[in-house]
Structures are given as C-alpha cells and as structure tokens.
Design goal:
Blueprint (H helix, E strand, L loop, with lengths): L8 H10 L4 H19 L2 E4 L1 H17 L10 E5 L26 H8 L3 E6 L33 H8 L5 E6 L5 H7 L2 E4 L19 E6 L2 H11 L29 E5 L9 H16 L3 E5 L7 H16 L17 H12 L2 H14 L5 H24 L2 E5 L15 H6 L5 H6 L3 E8 L5 E8 L4 H14 L11
Parallel strand pairs: 2-3, 2-4, 7-8, 7-9
Antiparallel strand pairs: 1-3, 4-6, 5-6, 5-10, 9-11, 10-11
Bound molecules: glutamine.
Amino acid sequence: MTELTALSVAAALTGLASGEISSRDLTHACLAAILQHDPELRCFLAVEPEQALAQADAADARRREGGILPPLLGLPLAVKDVLAVEGMPATAGSRILAGFRPPYTATAVRRLQEAGVVILGKTNTDEFAMGSSTENSAFFTTRNPWNTGRVPGGSSGGSAAAVAARLTPAALGTDTGGSVRQPAAFCGVTGLKPTYGRVSRYGLIAYGSSLDTVGVLARGAEDVAVLFNVMAGHDPLDATSARRPAPQVRLGVEVSIAGLRLGVPEEYFIAGIQPAVEEKVRAAIAQLESLGAQVRPVSLPHTQYALPVYYIIAPAEASANLARFDGVRYGLRLPHADVIEMFKETRGAGFGPEVVRRIMLGTYALSAGYYDAYYGQAQKVRTLIARDFSSAFEQVDVIAAPVAPTTAFAIGGHGDDPLAMYLEDVFTLPANLAGVPGLAFPVGFDADGLPVGMQLMGRPFEEETLLRTAHAYQQATDWHTRVPRSE
Ligand code: GLN
C-alpha cells in the first residue's frame, strides 16, 4: 500500500491545496490499489481508469490556473452502482440493466463533480439495493477486507469495503433500511444516512421511494461532513427534496459535546445481540459520557414492529418502482413476437430471486382485499414509530444504539433463509421509517478481529449534531484509523 492511499479526505484536500500532491498521483495510487486488491475483494462493478486519470489531469490543470477553486478539486471518489453517472454503466447489481448507460447524472454525484471530484468507478451492491451482504448482487459477492470469508454488509458493501481497504478515500452509498450504516459498521468505516429529503434522489435507481436516501462513507466523521456539505440541499428535480439551505458542517479540533443529552433505548439492547457488540457500544457510550455527554435511558416502544412494517412498505414500493423494467426502456430484452411474452421472459431472466420475492410480497400487500390489512396497517404503525422518535427527541438530542446485532457474518452464513437476513436490519430500519438521520462509526473489534459499529440517530436535519458527536469520539479514540491487513 502506498502512502497516498492512506490519506483521509481532509488530508488529501490539504495536500492537493498546498501542491504537495497532485490529483493524478492520488488517483493513480487509488487505481493501483484497486488493481492490486480488487481481484480479491471485488468492491467494483466498473472501474474507468482512463476517465478517472483524465478528470485528475483536468483538476490539476484547473488548480494551476488558480483563482477561486471548487472545494473538492481532484479528490477521488467511488459511487455505488445504483446512482446514475453519465458515461458509465449503471446496473444496480442486476442483469436486467445489462448494457444500460444512463444519459444523465444523479444530482448528488453532479454536485460532487461540480465541486471537483474524480470518479474512480461504480461499486458493487445487492440487486436493486435489496439485501444486507452484497450476496444478492447478480454478479459477485464483495469480501470484507478484515476477513475475506465474511460479508462486507450491504447493500452498499462495495463502497464500504473499498473505503476500508483504502482503495478510495470516500464513497457514495444509499440507505433505504440500513444500507449505508450496516456495511459501514461491518467494515469499520463511518457512514451517514441523511434525513429523508436532505440529499436529492434524482438519478438514484428507486427501491422504496418513501425510504430511499443517498449517503456517504469515509473513514471519519470529518471526511463524511466535507462530502455531505456538497451533496445536500434542495433540488427541484426531486419533488421530495427538502427546501432547506445546504448544510455547512465544520468539524475542528475544538468540537465539544459537553451537555449533549444522549439517550440509550432499552429496545435496542435485546436478547440475541452478540455480546461483543453490546459491550463495545456500551463502552463507547461511557466514553461519550466522559467527553461531557449526559447519558439517560429513553424508550422507543414500537421498535419491534419496524421489521414487519418495513418488509411490507419497502417491497410494496419496490413492486411499483420495478414495473418500469420491461425490456422496452432499459437494458436487457429477450426478444419475442408477442409483447406480453417479451415482458415475461425479460423480467423472468433479468431479476434475481430476492428481487422476485420482494416484487411478489409487495404486489400481494397492495392487491385488492389485502391493501388495508397489510399496506394500510403498516402505514399506521409507521406513524407510531415516527412518533416514538419525536417524543424521545423532546428528552434527548441524540440516540445511541448498535448498528446491527452482530459483526460481519460469514459469506453464505444465512444460506437461503431470507428471514435470518432481514433480522440483520432490525436496528437500522426504524430511522428510515421515521425519516431521521443516522450515523454509523467504528467503536472497537470483536474477538475475531471484526469491527463493531455504533449508531447515532438524531432529529430531522440535525446531521451536524451526529457528526459532531462522532467527531468528538474520534478525536479521543483511534478505531477509525485502523487498517485491515492486506497483502
Ligand atoms: N437490508 C435492507 C433490505 O434488504 C435494507 C437495504 C437498503 O437499505 N437498501 O431491504
């Protein structure tokens, strides 16, 4: 591993600004690391070395011109393959999008490009972001850099593993039910799921539109904040985009959490949680207390319903969103003289088993006679879950909890048991159902040397409070700087 790939976002930007490093050298170092390690880790579905180096050269030329420079000029970035980037493939981890090249770029990516980033490539994901391990990718499973027999988490597993393995300083992910936070926890990196509506969904291949968020993964909270500031803000191209000014989170050494009221919900420390996860999360809470936080118990009584509610609402929305993949407009098409047969054959061949399962579940939950019993009921309980959070946030500023009940599980460990896989999401789904922001970051390791993550959840649009809290913790600890052994 070269020294350049060891740089954090903040350090890379400092080096680029001072002229100590060039974007070409930094980008080249990332591409070399990808060439060396990705054949084993399999984080990337597509890498575009020539495009990336051309962007890096353009960034270096722009810097030589001088004047007012965009804030991320020359910084390499990886993008989850559910986000559209013009000039690159977008598969969403699915065969049904084979050959599809979107003619436009997602707003979050476009803002980062306008700020000067260099796109290295597109990262692996569970098909249409449905999964918690990347094992549902139609192409391959990404390996956890801490132990290649383990999953990296998912669905943004390619992004999380790439950041952990130092193949890129930062990566974009998406989070519908935990897909930024859980892989961040499994790979020992920091990942932000913003408030619903905070970052535009334009150009994101839709999964569950009332839950989908675009987030970011990097090594520490400081790095996450730098990218979040650029990505977030109102976008007229997304009708659900919040009319809020762009955030301006600045995290210096002086950040303090003195007086912060930190709530610990008993519902997140349940039987079945891996003892090392509980132990490390409780130790991190104690550390935050020693840094000035006031820790107190808080209750989120409807937590246990989040899992069944999510697994009605998300598939229902997915079944509608995925109707557009019909062999006519995008990607794969199996030709047939009869158009209905063409639809059937294309969809039958193009979708993997988990996606088919979700489409069937969702279609059933929305069908006449069952709509009120399932979808309607789930929406009511979703409201109760959201109210749990609003009343808790009258008493505390931030809620601390585990990200997932276990550390990274073995590849193939959940076999063909979809319910066992869904249970991995038990602590991340509530934030999506309530629309509140969540941040995952590393707080230690289990006895097998696998990272343990902690989750902070906050009031809507208070991402800054979460980032400040994690930053204060990261100033006092060094878990986020640990590097997996790599050959
Ligand atoms: N694991 C969850 C699911 O399978 C969440 C995925 C996500 O956030 N995209 O739906």
